């Protein structure tokens, strides 16, 4: 069995689930899962866990991400992107100068209202399922953080390309909507490409059909940059059996745990000592 993380370049026009199916066929591995959905119209970096590294979903889902997205001013759709139905139009179109002046208002920590067509769960149902039935979901704003928001160029009449670096959970479609509202206009997202997720970049990604075992990064490579800690070999048995152990110099927070030169997984320091949270040890 292969264990690791693979950096897939998902093409536009297919779902994240279909991309996973293609990678399963290419690698001949069944235990594969993606680390954060890209909408069918979206393209770019889609990380996938292979084998035991499917357990790293929460770890990679929380990584910051970078996107390049095009916003077209003058109309809005029910989905907030070009795949939806036009629900409003306006002749109030901002200039590039107008846009650049308002962008700083959207940098930093802020509350954001998700789109009605989103995967948010409302009463046990997905918001997009409710929206398709004509039901308006009672969504709540979520805290996000935008680290940078840059206008790159004009791509078409009333359309501009932006680069956005942001926290997990940020809806770029909602940023498009909110920027337009601040400018007294309407806008719709016409394209989106994820160019980075954590330390994985689009330049190093591979298509779902072309991926090979050599493209799968080992757990050690995938977790590079995270605090590492080597526990005394005497604790190997207890640690691998899920027993917390007190270790004087253990780091706080979550860290990559090694023992006897072997990667055991992601661990944390609890009241009763160091304990593996995500078990990654090779069988």
Distance between the termini: 10 Å
CATH homologous superfamily title of the largest domain? Pseudouridine synthase
CATH class of the largest domain: Alpha Beta
Mean pLDDT level: 91
**What is the second-level CATH architecture of the largest domain?**
2-Layer Sandwich
How much strand?
35-45%
User: Structural class of the secondary structure composition?
Assistant: alpha+beta
Could you please say which CATH topology of the largest domain applies here? Pseudouridine synthase
Tell how many strands the DSSP assignment holds. Answer: 17
Count of helix runs: 7
Helix percentage: 10-25%
Low-confidence stretches: none
Number of domains: 3
Largest pleated sheet: 9 strands, mixed
Radius of gyration: 22 Å
Q: Note the run of SSEs as H and E.
A: EHEEHEEEHEEEHEEHEEHEHEEE
Overall morphology: elongated
Description:
With 283 residues, the protein is an alpha+beta fold. The protein folds into 3 domains: 4-63 and 199-222, 2-Layer Sandwich (Pseudouridine synthase), CATH 3.30.2350; 65-197, Pseudouridine synthase; 228-279, PUA domain (Archaeosine Trna-guanine Transglycosylase, Chain: A, domain 4, Roll). 18% of the residues lie in helices and 37% in strands. It has 7 helices and 17 strands. The chain has helices spanning 16-27, 57-61, 96-102, 127-132, 172-182, 219-222, 236-240; strands at 4-10, 32-34, 43-50, 65-73, 75-77, 86-89, 108-112, 121-122, 125-126, 142-156, 159-166, 187-197, 200-201, 228-231, 254-259, 262-270, 273-279. Strands 1, 2, 3, 4, 7, 10, 11, 12 and 13 form a 9-stranded mixed beta sheet that branches. Strand 2 (32-34) and strand 3 (43-50) form a beta hairpin. The longest helix has 12 residues, at 16-27. The chain is elongated. The relative contact order is 0.19. The model has no long low-confidence stretch (mean pLDDT 91).
């Amino acid at each position: 069995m292969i264990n690791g993380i693979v950096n897939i370049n998902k093409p536009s026009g297919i779902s994240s689930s279909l991309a996973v199916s293609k990678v399963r066929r290419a690698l001949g591995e069944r235990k594969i899962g993606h680390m954060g959905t890209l909408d069918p119209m979206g393209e770019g970096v889609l990380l996938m866990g292979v084998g035991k590294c499917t357990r790293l979903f929460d770890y990679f889902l929380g990584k910051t991400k970078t996107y390049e997205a095009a916003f077209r001013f003058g109309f809005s759709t029910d989905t907030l992107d070009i795949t939806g139905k036009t629900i409003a139009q306006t002749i109030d179109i901002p200039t590039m100068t107008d846009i650049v002046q308002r962008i700083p208002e959207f940098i930093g920590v802020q509350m954001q209202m998700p789109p009605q067509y989103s995967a948010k769960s409302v009463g046990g149902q997905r918001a997009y399922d409710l929206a398709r039935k004509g039901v308006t979901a009672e969504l709540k704003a979520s805290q996000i953080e935008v680290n940078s928001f840059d206008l790159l160029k004009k791509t078409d009449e009333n359309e501009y390309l932006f680069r956005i670096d942001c926290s997990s959970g940020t809806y770029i479609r909602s940023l498009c909507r909110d920027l337009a509202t601040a400018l007294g206009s309407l806008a719709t997202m016409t394209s989106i490409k994820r160019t980075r997720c954590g330390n994985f970049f689009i330049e190093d990604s591979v298509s779902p059909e072309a991926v090979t075992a050599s493209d799968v990064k080992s757990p050690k490579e995938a977790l590079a940059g995270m605090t590492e800690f080597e526990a005394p070999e005497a604790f190997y048995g207890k640690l691998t059996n899920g027993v917390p152990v007190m270790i004087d110099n253990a780091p706080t927070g979550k860290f990559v745990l090694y023992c006897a030169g072997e990667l055991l997984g992601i661990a944390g320091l609890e009241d009763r000592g160091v304990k593996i949270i995500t078990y990654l040890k090779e069988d």
